């Protein structure tokens, strides 16, 4: 009798243990660890997105300034300034653009207002205008428009707006020291009623160590900027290669 009771007790314990395991297993199945939020995938910006700016030849004027911005959503803004001896004629347009199906380096710009098409050839860090037949212009080397980069301009002049875009970066040697030469494309808007005279010592590049580097005008000296006029100039700075440009200061 005692042996029968022991046997029954053993099976009761075994059954109870099995129920506990089943219950624990079911609980584990129901309670799942919280899912970790997925990390956002970084959006890669295409290399062609940016600002392109330069002077190109002009048949009806002295020279033409082209400023083209290509945006990631495939829209654009185009500013063109035709420079004459006594005046400057400006126009601005915007719209969308598409890549040619057969040639991914060929852009077709479509003006939102006029629906007219313009064609450009896309290169590494530059863009080139084409004629209406999608062909290069004669002396096409002069039609290369580089991609430029902005730099902060600390301007102390009243009634004057100044914007500087990096036009070219070169490795040079200055006084036996390996150096960097940065050439900026300056747009100087004189909103005052007087002509503005600028000297090379008025414009300095400040590096990350707060050293000043005096500018060099490509057209030296530059002519006075007339009242209520805009003038464009190429201005360069040379500084040791180990330094880093921070901003431009206008005194």
Automatic annotation (TrEMBL):
Species of origin: Acinetobacter terrestris
Protein name: Copper resistance protein NlpE N-terminal domain-containing protein
InterPro entries linked: Cu-R_lipoprotein_NlpE
């Amino acid at each position: 009798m005692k042996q029968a009771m022991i046997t029954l007790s053993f099976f009761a314990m075994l059954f109870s243990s099995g129920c506990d395991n089943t219950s624990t297993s079911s609980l584990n199945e129901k309670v799942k660890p919280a899912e970790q939020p997925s990390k956002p995938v970084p959006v890669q910006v295409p290399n062609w997105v940016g600002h392109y700016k330069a002077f190109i030849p002009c048949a009806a004027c002295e020279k033409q300034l082209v400023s083209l911005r290509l945006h990631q959503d495939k829209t654009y803004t185009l500013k063109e300034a035709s420079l004459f001896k006594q005046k400057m004629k400006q126009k601005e347009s915007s719209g969308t653009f598409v890549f040619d199906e057969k040639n991914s380096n060929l852009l077709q710009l479509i003006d939102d207002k006029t629906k007219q098409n313009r064609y450009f050839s896309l290169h590494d860090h530059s863009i080139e205008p084409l004629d209406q037949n999608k062909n290069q212009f004669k002396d096409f080397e002069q039609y290369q428009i580089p991609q430029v980069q902005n730099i902060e301009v600390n301007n102390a002049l009243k009634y004057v707006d100044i914007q500087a875009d990096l036009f070219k970066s070169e490795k040079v040697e200055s006084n036996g020291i390996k150096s960097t030469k940065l050439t900026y494309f300056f747009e100087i808007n004189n909103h005052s009623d007087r002509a503005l005279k600028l000297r090379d010592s008025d414009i300095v590049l400040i590096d990350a160590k707060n050293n000043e580097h005096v500018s060099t005008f490509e057209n030296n000296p530059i002519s006075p900027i007339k009242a209520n006029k805009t003038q464009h100039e190429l201005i360069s700075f040379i500084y040791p290669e180990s330094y880093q440009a921070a901003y431009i200061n206008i005194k």
